[in-house]
Write a structure and sequence with these properties.
Blueprint (H helix, E strand, L loop, with lengths): L1 H12 L7 E5 L9 H9 L3 H9 L4 E2 L2 E2 L12 E5 H8 L16 E2 L8 E2 L15 H8 L9 H14 L8 H17 L8 E5 L3 E6 L9 H11 L7 H9 L7 E2 L8 E7 L2 H12 L4 E9 L5 E8 L8 E2 L13 E13 L2 E8 L6 H8 L31 E9 L6 E5 L4 H27 L1
Helix pairs in contact: 2-3
């Protein structure tokens, strides 16, 4: 009995094997999702496996173990996932404690192919460096050694080269560090073309851009406070960062005065001086800036003016308008939102709608169109009534809410000149419109041929 007790005590005192963890920074597109949803997307596994992993209590969120799969995450927070899960599902080798969102550790190389594999496949991080390919790793470790070196050193290098195919961390650290520095220098100038903002107008006071989808307008205050000045370099680039780079100025010389959603494309204006920033903010607050949007929606909405008061939770956890019974301006605590809607064209069950804003609330157009039963094509959040099912199934090819800021009009802060800019439809929306027109033409031709045959 004594021996058993001593064995039990020694087993209790023996330290548990510490799991190697990968730290993941929650991005804006993942904010509000459940832990199970984030793990499912990151590891690309079924829901059942994601829940089983959470029940093992090996996932950590903000340095605390996750016990519920329904717990929701916030932007900028850190989620820790054991490294062996990535190895199992992505077949990648990851350094201990590395962050997939970090520029120097966002991707790894595999032995079988020379292609780069990203953990975040749905949206490649602009800060991701261009890692060494397998061929470059092999060539760096197979460099000829000076003649005065011993055979023993050469044999050690051969062993290191063989092991490096299984574990890239065994490569010569100095060569690895030098190559990473070169890649970082390249990443400053190489940026995904589809995420690069296009400058529409620029002068000494302001700059107007055409923001593509997939890139946020500016850094959220929560992110800036969470990571600080040093931590910002590990976060994805914003449109503000890229505008500063394109103009060759520091980030503190470009001022954001408004924003549009990450998945919304179109016109955005930035100020280049603090005085202009203050003037433009006054114009936005007093609704002097005219902004018009084009949206492809389900159904055919009537031309109307929508007025409601937005609350953070309409009853099902989503932002939306307060119920009509409590929409009393004297007692309601929400924010007033006004949207004007005008239908420009209709092709079958899809319509092109022009929306103009009197107020600039978060997701205002998406919420108002969803609440009248005509959600935007590609909408996944505001496409249903409270506690109800979606009005329409997701449209094939609509990978985002088809909303585009096509027109902006404001008064120049220095010259007092009325300035206006306009843009055509982006390619994804234009492609859908052409498909709808082609279908309508084909159906009308068939109908005419049937009438002629009669």
């Amino acid at each position: 009995m004594k021996r058993n007790r001593t064995n039990q005590n020694s087993a209790e005192k023996s330290p548990k094997k510490r799991l190697r963890m990968v730290k993941i920074i929650i991005e804006s597109r993942e904010s509000g999702k459940t832990v199970a949803a984030v793990i499912r997307e990151r590891l690309q596994i079924p829901w059942s496996e994601a829940r089983k992993i959470i029940l093992q209590r090996i996932i950590r969120y903000n340095q605390q173990p996750v016990t519920q799969d329904a717990m929701r995450v916030k932007i900028g927070k850190i989620l820790e996932i054991p490294v062996h899960l990535f190895r199992k599902n992505n077949k990648n080798e990851i350094e201990d404690g590395q962050n997939p969102n970090n520029s120097s550790t966002a991707s790894t190389t595999t032995k079988k192919s020379n292609t780069t594999t990203n953990f975040n496949k749905s949206k490649p991080s602009p800060l991701e460096s261009f890692p060494l390919e397998s061929s470059s790793l092999e060539s760096s470790s197979l460099k000829s050694t000076p003649k005065d070196r011993s055979n023993q050193t050469a044999s050690k290098k051969e062993i290191t080269h063989q092991n490096s195919r299984k574990n890239p961390s065994l490569i010569n650290r100095e060569e690895h560090k030098t190559s990473l520095e070169k890649k970082k220098q390249q990443s400053k100038y190489e940026f995904p073309e589809e995420l690069e903002p296009k400058i529409v107008y620029v002068d000494d006071d302001l700059v107007v851009i055409n923001k593509p989808t997939g890139i946020t307008t500016m850094r959220h205050e929560e992110e800036a406070k969470e990571f600080g000045l040093k931590g910002k370099k590990y976060l994805p680039y914003t449109a503000l960062d890229r505008v500063a780079f394109l103009l060759g100025v520091g980030r503190d010389r470009i001022y954001a005065v408004h924003r549009i959603d990450r998945d919304t494309s179109g016109l955005v204006v930035f100020a280049r001086t603090n005085e202009v920033k203050i003037d433009l903010e006054k114009q936005f607050r007093s609704h002097e800036v005219e902004r018009r949007y084009l949206a492809l929606v389900h159904g055919k909405p009537d031309d109307q003016k929508i007025v409601s008061w937005f609350v953070d939770d309409r009853g099902d956890g989503r932002r939306g308008s307060a119920s009509k019974e409590i929409q009393d301006p004297k007692t309601i605590s929400g924010k007033k939102a006004i949207t004007h809607i005008s239908t420009k064209a209709t092709w079958g069950e899809i319509s092109l709608v022009e929306c103009s804003l009197e107020t600039g609330r978060t997701h205002q157009i998406r919420i108002h169109l969803g609440e009248i039963g005509c959600p935007i094509c590609g909408e996944k959040i505001y496409n249903r009534p409270v506690h109800g099912k979606p009005y329409y199934p997701l449209l094939p090819g609509a990978n985002r809410p088809f909303l585009h800021s096509f027109s902006m009009q404001l008064i120049h802060p220095r010259t007092s000149e009325l300035m206006e800019w306009s843009l055509p439809l982006p390619m994804d929306m234009k492609r859908l419109v052409e498909e709808l027109k082609a279908k309508q033409t084909t159906s009308s031709n068939l109908a005419n041929s049937e009438e002629d045959s009669k």
